[in-house]
Structure formats: C-alpha cells, structure tokens
Specification:
By secondary structure, this protein is of the alpha+beta class. It has one domain. Helices cover 19% and strands 28% of the residues. The protein has three helices and eleven strands. The chain has a nine-stranded mixed barrel with strand order 1-2-3-4-5-6-9-10-11. Strands 7-8 form a two-stranded antiparallel ribbon. A hairpin with a 4-residue loop joins strand 7 and strand 8. The termini are far apart.
C-alpha cells in the first residue's frame, strides 16, 4: 500500500498558498508606491472652489461696451446685424424669466459658487438661480443634452480648468442681451479658469459661425466673497418681470 501513497496533490496546494502569501506581500509593498504616485496628480489640480464676488465693486458693470470694447467687440455677419436691427427690448426672453447663458452669465454682476468633485465641477450662479455641471469623466453629449445652458465638459491643464460647452438651443439674446446679439445651435463657448493670488480669473471665448465671422473673447475676474456669505435666491416671477415691459419705450409703433 505504501507504493500507492500519493503525496503529489498536496504540493500544488502548498505552492498556491506560498504564491498567495508572496503576492500579498508584493501588493502590500506596491500600494504605498501607487498611492504616492497618485497624490502629486491630485495636488496639481487648481483650487478654484468657493464663493466668488463678481459684483460691480469688483469689475465694471456690463453694458453695450463692457465686457465688449472696440478692441474685442465681436465681428458680426449680416445675419446677426439684421437680428440686431429688428430687435425690440420687450421681446427679450429675460422678461419671461428665461435665464442668461454663456458668454453673458459669467460677467453678470452676481456671486458665483464653484464646487470641485473628482468627476465634475459645479458652477452655481446667483443670477437666475442657474446650476451648470462641467463633466470631467470623459462623457460626451447625447441627442437629449440640448438646452439653454448647453452641455459642458472640462479638463485640467496645468493650473487651469478648461471648459468647453456645446449643444445650446437657439436664443434670441444668447450672445448678449445688451447689444441684442443672438446665438444659434452652433455656438461653442470655451472658458479657461485660473487663480492669480487671491483672484479668480477667466477668459471666455465664443464661436458661432451662424452669427460671428470669427471667435470673440473677453477676460474677467472675481474676488472672494465676504466670509460666511451664502448665495441669495434670484426668485424671478414671470408675471412681475413682464410688468416692467409696459414702461419700455417701443422701438417700433
């Protein structure tokens, strides 16, 4: 019977057990190295989070020549000029509480809050109670993502956050409600955010071949909001907003 003893099957079990221990030890020694490699990447992400003051105490009030000046005023095609010519102020959708959109909402004189998560950045605007989500996870817009604020994707480049927004719907004042410049479904807005000391800065560039002959851009800044500040509700009421239209002198009679 001794000749029939088979110790062989136990050896693979012993080998597997030893390999498991060695693998555990190897992984255990590797984990700190992997963690150390991931930390520097995270530390390179610019700290843009917080509530930022974009009021008129920080920058000039927006209007027909601000932030657009002679130096950076958009070069419009005939289609855009025709829209501007026939536009009348009471037609503005803001009197029906339609929110402002890029590239105008970034310059409106209100507070803005930025929240940074691993897979997204959130922009909360006091103006019109708007929330924009900038996706960092590589997702792409679908046919269901057309909207007044478009669809935003972003990435970090060095010490800056780059945001690209497409999939806007047509908006009669989607470029600028001070100059009555519309925007189309072809509008693309690119934003670059970075810190300069205590300031948050951004360059906003808009492309729209339907109305613009070439891209137009402006650069602006925000300062930290007062300590403890909370965003205030805009609370636009369409009925109340529309009341003011009766006091606007009509352009056409």
């Amino acid at each position: 019977m001794r000749g029939t003893t088979r110790p062989g099957p136990r050896r693979p079990c012993l080998t597997i057990a030893v390999c498991a221990v060695l693998l555990t030890v190897t992984i255990g020694h590797s984990l700190p190295k992997l963690k150390a490699q991931s930390n520097p990447a995270a530390s390179q992400i610019p700290d843009l989070a917080g509530i930022w003051d974009g009021s008129t105490s920080v920058r000039p009030p927006n209007g027909k020549t601000v932030p657009w000046t002679k130096a950076n005023f958009p070069e419009l095609n005939e289609r855009a000029l025709a829209y501007m010519k026939v536009f009348d102020e009471p037609l503005s959708p803001k009197y029906d509480c339609q929110p402002a959109t890029p590239p105008a909402i970034e310059y409106d004189p209100y507070m803005t809050e930025i929240v940074q998560w691993p897979d997204r950045v959130l922009f909360r605007y006091e103006k019109d109670d708007q929330l924009r989500t900038v996706w960092l996870d590589g997702r792409q817009p679908t046919v269901h993502d057309w909207g007044i604020q478009g669809f935003s994707v972003g990435r970090y480049e060095g010490t800056a956050l780059i945001v690209e927004t497409t999939h806007f719907v047509f908006d009669i004042t989607g470029f600028d409600d001070y100059n009555y410049i519309p925007s189309s479904q072809q509008k693309k807005v690119t934003e670059r955010y970075w810190r300069e000391g205590n300031e948050l800065r951004a360059t906003v560039t808009v492309e729209d071949p339907m109305f613009l002959r070439k891209p137009a851009s402006y650069t602006t800044r925000w300062l930290p909001a007062p300590k403890g500040y909370k965003l205030q509700s805009f609370e636009c009421d369409p009925e109340t907003a529309r009341l003011s239209v009766q006091f606007i002198p009509p352009r056409y009679k």
